[in-house]
């Protein structure tokens, strides 16, 4: 596990990695702070310390995914109020859209960020939702 929350510069920005979060073996940063923007990579329902999938249903997985995003945003002293765009990927959009949206509303409030929601096949079996986000620092 990496103990520092910010690492070396990443393509014009600073890589963000919440302390206590397992280091990924994938070629990505969990988040990148670049100027006034913070870009959060596609987050899923992995437990931050064990890397295991949290939950079997879309509600529980969405909550864990949003907690993971919240941790990355916090590394840049931001929160959901600062999110300006979110992209949502659901493995079964017809079945899970309404349930996902209900949990999403627990974390994000109006005025909502711009959002795209699409149905996809996610890379890891058992994952039901993936979310990436862009946040902007307030002036």
What does this structure look like?
There is one protein chain. This protein has 139 residues and is α+β, with helices and mostly antiparallel strands. It is built from 2 helices and 7 strands; from the N terminus they run E-E-E-E-H-E-H-E-E. Strands 1-2-3-4-7-5-6 form a 7-stranded mixed β-sheet, with helices on one face. Helix 1 packs across helix 2. The N and C termini lie far apart (33 Å).
How many H/I helical runs? 2
Q: Quick one: how many beta strands?
A: 7
Global morphology: globular
Helix fraction?
10-25%
Helices and strands in order:
Layout: E1 6-9, E2 14-16, E3 31-34, E4 37-43, H1 58-75, E5 83-90, H2 93-107, E6 114-119, E7 129-136
Parallel strand pairs: 5-6
Antiparallel strand pairs: 1-2, 2-3, 3-4, 4-7, 5-7
Question: What features would you highlight for this structure?
Answer:
seven-stranded mixed beta sheet; alpha+beta; 139 residues; disordered N terminus; 24% helix; 7 strands
Write a short abstract of this structure.
The chain has about 140 residues and is an alpha+beta fold. The protein is built from two helices and seven strands. It is about 25% helix and about 30% strand.
């Amino acid at each position: 596990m990496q103990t520092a929350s910010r690492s070396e510069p990443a393509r014009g920005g600073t890589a963000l990695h919440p302390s206590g979060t397992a280091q990924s073996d994938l070629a990505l940063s969990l988040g990148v702070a670049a100027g006034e923007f913070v870009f959060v990579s596609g987050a899923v329902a992995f437990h931050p310390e064990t890397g295991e999938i949290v939950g079997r249903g879309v509600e529980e997985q969405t909550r864990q995914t949003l907690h993971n995003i919240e941790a990355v945003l916090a590394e840049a002293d931001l929160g959901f109020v600062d999110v300006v765009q979110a992209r949502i990927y659901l493995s079964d959009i017809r079945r899970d859209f309404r349930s996902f949206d209900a949990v999403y509303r627990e974390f994000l409030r109006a005025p909502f960020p711009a959002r795209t929601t699409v149905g996809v096949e996610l890379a890891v079996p058992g994952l039901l939702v993936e979310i990436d986000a862009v946040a902007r620092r307030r002036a």
